[in-house]
Amino acid sequence: MPRQFDGSRVRAVRRRLELKQKELGEKVGVSAASVTRWELGEDFPKGEKLPAIAAALGEPLDVLFPYEGRADLQILRCDAQLSVAQAAAVIGASRVPVSNAESGRRRLQDAYVGALAHAYGVTEEELLAAQDVSFGSRQAAPPRNEHPPTPRTVGEKINYLLQQGYTDRTPPSDEQIAWAVNDHTGMPSTTAEDIAALRMGRVTDVPDAVRAGLAHAFQADVALFQDDAEITPEARELVEAVQFVRSIREGDILGLAARGNEAGLSPAAITAINKVLGELRNKLPDLPDER
């Protein structure tokens, strides 16, 4: 299965960076009109363009464009930023062997495996495993739990909280997170560039003061931001509860109730919801507006 592309997410990140559509297009080699169509959901970029888009927006590829299951041959090729024609040129053949293997029609010849693995930046074993996924001879993904894999590094935890806690609005920028951390520590402890490096996994060594500042920014226990400390079920429930409350604020849940029940929610239910709202309205970071 190819990577998931969400044009509205690309637009939100681009605007957060104050990057124009033309500027993003220039970075990835397309026109501003193409970027507009992507963001409106009228068209989708080619898979081999996704790494360049993620890099231009300063986002980890797997965070901005996730995919279900294990990587298949198409994902390996696209992540290497190669078209089918370019991959075919690597093995000195027509497009047919590459296309047949990706579509699960005919496996790659042994003579092609080493060259493609090198071009894709993987081992031969990884390439053959991806080929198995393309052919469906190996389960494409283990049964998924109700929740995504547990984030363990500080950067993974920041990404998790940004993804899960801000589904209905633009998440805070790296600059805003850095501001909140510095406001808590009372000194310039980090920068937007530092936060971006954490989220992209380029940096893993985090001072205790910054960990404490991140905990304050996300209203979480400081122990959460220790290495290998897991996001607990309670923390997950908090994020889900905030999402639920936001749905109520926007009228989503009330609208669904109205379609299924003319009477809507009972007074008791509304009272309970208001109680939850009061308890949770201040649980996410109180960050300054973007300027």
Write a brief caption for the model.
Helix content is 57%, strand content 0%. The chain is mostly helical and 291 residues long. It is globular and about 60 Å long.
Tell me what you see in this structure.
This protein has 291 residues and is an all-alpha fold. 57% of the residues lie in helices and 0% in strands. The chain has helices at 7-16, 21-28, 32-40, 50-56, 61-64, 73-79, 84-90, 96-102, 110-120, 124-135, 154-165, 174-185, 192-199, 208-217, 233-250, 252-260, 267-280. It is globular, with a radius of gyration of 22 Å.
Number of strands: 0
* Major pleated sheet: none
Q: Gap between N and C termini, in Å?
A: 39 Å
Radius of gyration: 22 Å
Low-confidence stretches: 138-147, 241-267, 280-291
Number of contiguous helices: 17
Order of helices and strands: HHHHHHHHHHHHHHHHH
**Can you tell me the overall shape?**
globular
Structural class: mainly alpha
Give the rounded overall mean pLDDT: 77
Helix coverage percent: 55-70%
Q: Classify the beta-strand content into a percent band.
A: under 5%
Present the secondary structure layout.
Elements lengths: L6 H10 L4 H8 L3 H9 L9 H7 L4 H4 L8 H7 L4 H7 L5 H7 L7 H11 L3 H12 L18 H12 L8 H12 L6 H8 L8 H10 L15 H18 L1 H9 L6 H14 L11
Helix pairs in contact: 1-3, 2-3, 9-10, 11-13, 12-13, 12-14, 15-17
